[in-house]
């Protein structure tokens, strides 16, 4: 199994929320997520992410999650492994010892919900704005790109104006910092 997602910049959150409600999507209360992204020391922004493992340490409600994602078809179609860790600082030290370098910190307020068989996240990302992500788990025999097109059709069926984004939050933040 691997995770496939599509992401969109939201210009009218009220319209999106109304459309989601009309489709029976109930969103959770917002939670704050503090993510530190990591890349292999030899990797640099601008290089391909396909086949490269990336790590993340997330703190949410006092709980720390360690995640490794390896993009397969593109940045939004990844093999993913995730587990709870007891000590964020010790895990940070372990990642640095294993040859990972901290890249960017991503802080967001996230609301989640289910839309049939898919997961949905509404994110207010500090320094970037509001985004909606739709995610599905697929088998390794299914094309990530085909699944993304299916998910894109689902989002487009809402009838609200959104802009599809193919970069991850870390890449978007990095681009914003470089431009500013």
UniProtKB/TrEMBL annotation:
Signal peptide: none annotated. SMART domains: CYTH (SM01118). InterPro entries: Adenylyl_cyclase_CyaB, CYTH-like_dom_sf, CYTH_domain. Residues 1-175 form the CYTH domain. Pfam families: CYTH. This is CYTH domain-containing protein. It comes from Micromonospora gifhornensis. The lineage of its organism: Bacteria, Bacillati, Actinomycetota, Actinomycetes, Micromonosporales.
